[in-house]
Amino acid sequence: MKKSLLSKQVIQNFFEGKTTRMQNILIEEWLENPANRERYFQWLDEWETENPQFTPDVEQAYQRSLDTVQNKTDLPSPNYAAPDTVARANQGALVGRLFVIKWVAAASIALIAGAYLLSDFWFYKQYETGYGEIRTVVLPDSSRVTLNANSVLSVPRFGFGTREVKLKGEAEFAVKHTVDHSKFIVRTPDKLEVKVLGTEFIVYSRERGSKVVLSQGSVQLRSLKELNPRPMLMKPGDVATMSMQGTLTLKHSESLSTHQAWKQRLFMFENTPVSEIAYQISEHFGVNVVVADSTLARRTIGGTFNASDPANVLKVLSDVLNARVTHSPPGDDRAETFVLDTNHL
């Protein structure tokens, strides 16, 4: 029933203020799916192209919408209005072109889904990768981003003039140098700021901290957790790490191949503790890897492993370590688990 009600025509009726209260509720539920949200904006673009009204001052309108949301003033009420009120609000508001109509449509949906208005979704398009997945994204300025598994890249939905993105996970950036020398900025959840002009680098940002690996060009880092953050400059071959407390550490002339191996779907280790290997397998594939023996966890190994499947990686690893692996399938309340232990004779 929901599939038939929430056709493209129903969503376009919503843009025109012609939907019923029940359809508005169904649209709210439909928008909980990220894939539907992107489809919504696609249909909105199509509808606006077919129903042009006027040519707005895009930059001014967009900045005004940002100021409104950031100051939390004059926001639409999240309470449901009567059907005719919703229709009049939608019909009267959704008359702008391009970015103006996108924001006004978002404000209209706030009448039935107010919680979405203040989230990053309305202002950022998200590119996500699942466990074990690698994906390449070309940005509006022709910069290229290759996302590692279990990562999220957030790109401004309404224009890309500032060239600022957000990253959670790991990605390699190949930044396009512009004629006006505009900066490109990557921000991470733990307040690391990576600022560049045109270069190639990898940013890693997960629960245990952040890391930047520079292969070409130059990069400037700042830890915004500090009261007076000082810029740290990187050169090719440098690897910078930021602790959970916000402390930046820089190492020079590092071997970059181990940091870049994931692009070829490989794990590459150089005197790496087994405990660290287990962690990398866990975050890449979304499984639990437990090293049951503390002595085994401290052992270090080197080598290159195919990263296509966690079971295969652990099988090769157990052969190298003369250890054994036991496997527990996923349950209702836990992920798939692998236990690596000493091979007792």
Give me a quick take on this structure:
By secondary structure, this protein is of the alpha+beta class. The protein contains 11 helices and 18 strands.
Overview of the molecule:
- With 345 residues, the protein is an alpha+beta fold.
- It has three domains: 121 residues, no CATH class; 134 residues, Jelly Rolls; 78 residues, Phage tail protein beta-alpha-beta fold, CATH 3.55.50.30.
- The strands form three sheets. Strands 1, 2, 3, 4, 5, 6, 7, 8, 9, 10, 11, 12 and 13 form a 13-stranded mixed sheet that branches. Strands 15-18-17 form a three-stranded mixed sheet. It has a two-stranded antiparallel sheet with strand order 14-16.
- It is globular, with a radius of gyration of 24 Å.
- About 12% of the residues have low confidence.
Secondary structure elements and pairings:
Elements lengths: L1 H4 L2 H8 L5 H10 L3 H17 L7 H14 L11 H11 L4 H20 L6 E6 L5 E4 L5 E4 L3 E6 L7 E11 L9 E4 L4 E5 L3 E7 L2 E8 L2 E5 L8 E3 L4 E4 L5 E4 L5 H4 L5 E8 H12 L2 E4 L2 H5 L1 E7 L3 H12 L1 E6 L8 E6 L3
Parallel strand pairs: 5-6, 15-18
Antiparallel strand pairs: 1-4, 2-3, 3-5, 4-5, 5-8, 6-7, 7-10, 8-9, 9-12, 10-11, 12-13, 14-16, 17-18
Shape: globular
How big is the Rg?
24 Å
Strand content: 25-35%
The total of helices stands at 11
The total tally of domains equals: 3
Poorly predicted tracts of residues:
72-101, 109-118
